[in-house]
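As noted in the main text, all predictions were made from sequence alone. Below is one such record, for Isopropylmalate dehydrogenase-like domain-containing protein.
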Amino acid sequence: MHILIIPGANRAAPLVRHVIALLDDLKSRNGALDYTCVDAGTPDDGAYSACFESDIVLATPGARHATAVAAFAKVAGLHTELHAISIPAELKRFSPVSTRHARATDCLILGDASRGTKNTHTSGVVAGERELVGWYTQRYTESDIRRLAHRAFRLAGARSRRLTSVDRSDRLDVMGMWRDIVSETALQYPDVQLEHLLVEQAIERFIVEPDGFDTVLAGGDLAPLLAAHASALTGFPGLLTRARVGDGPAVLYEIGLPVHMDLPAGLEVDLEARAAANAVSLLLRHPPQDAMPDRPAYPPQILDAIPSLRH
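Prediction:
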């Protein structure tokens, strides 16, 4: 398995160092993997070609070759984004939710990587006669929604057989269509229990009862919104990794940039190490051929390689 690392901005340099340290440790344990790191001076077309020559692309925040990565994701058809939400044991005490809920939190959020805006005609800003006019339109076809729904139901079937579909059907007609098509698709998966929630209801549950979710399907721009709320459950927003997948073998992992917060005196948390461990464990447990992270977890060899908490 060959991994291509796309370095990001200078502030993300510690993330890259931790990722490389983890991969080197795994290679020393006879891990069947290799990696290369795109040089800062590499032109975009070189980075673009390198993406297609790799099994996995791992991008860090503020990637210098963001244009090449975006072009790769578009051509490779990476239409689905996946957010694996779990709280590592070492961070449960920092979670704003009770220990009981934090301990059981393990869910997967699926969304549409295009956010329902697949071309420039669905959004923009123009100069009107007297003022600027802006618009943002969500555009979905039945096939778009069914493709996402089928993947969500398959993933839910491999987990605890519970799927929650989140929408804005109370405000947007397109989300009403979303809810109807997801309900129709559910008839093909009688062993999966389907629940519909409005986005406000879903956010409320993430705050008071996050362990009530298992697999979540969210339309439009709701998946990253829910993932942002869920990432705060660790006590340190920005720790989680996003995967983008399609119908083929290509996979793009985008590491989050942790948000540093004030900690009690005498306690130090290496957030970059934890974010790197989160990303590497996700891509190792779920290689490109399945591209379905149905059980986010931390392999022991990852946790042994680099401690994230020191007292």
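The radius of gyration is 20 Å. DSSP finds ten helices and 14 strands in the chain. These features were considered when defining construct boundaries for the mutagenesis experiments described in Section 2.9.
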